[in-house]
Fold this protein.
Amino acid sequence: MPAPGSTRAPDKFKGNSSQLQDFLEEFEGHAVAQELTDDEKVRSVLKYVDGMTKSYWKTLDGYEERDWVKMKTELFDAYPGAKKGHRYTVKGLLKLAESYAQKRIEEEADLIEYNRQFRIMSRLLKNDKKVTTNEINRYFWYGIHKLDRKEILGRIELKDSTFDRTTVPDMELALKMG
């Protein structure tokens, strides 16, 4: 396999769902040329992903079992929209927000995971002109548990005393203050 970062190596995968399909196809092209086994594919693919992604991929059953086919299936399941042609609906985005609104944010990773899933869906919907930026901000905000929203609002007001509590903060501000 080419050395990570070399001109012949696959571009580093950084967790963007829209790039997963192409990344895996390019990686597999190299792996087939090198006649890698499933075990070698599972271990080698981690050389071409960023640190956060690497940590996540190591938690997959396919990684632990060194089963390349299973790992790929889990990856496509974990990255909404990664398979070409997959489309999202506003209803699906609202269901995601509703499911997260039921749970408290216990640690930073919870909010990051919600953001990752929400951002993938909302960006594709926005690109398809199905939602506006204001709707995205509102849906994201109400996808955060009400007690966590209260804490985030308190942090926003500490940072900006002129913030109007009756408005919905934009997604990036809510994430930063969360």
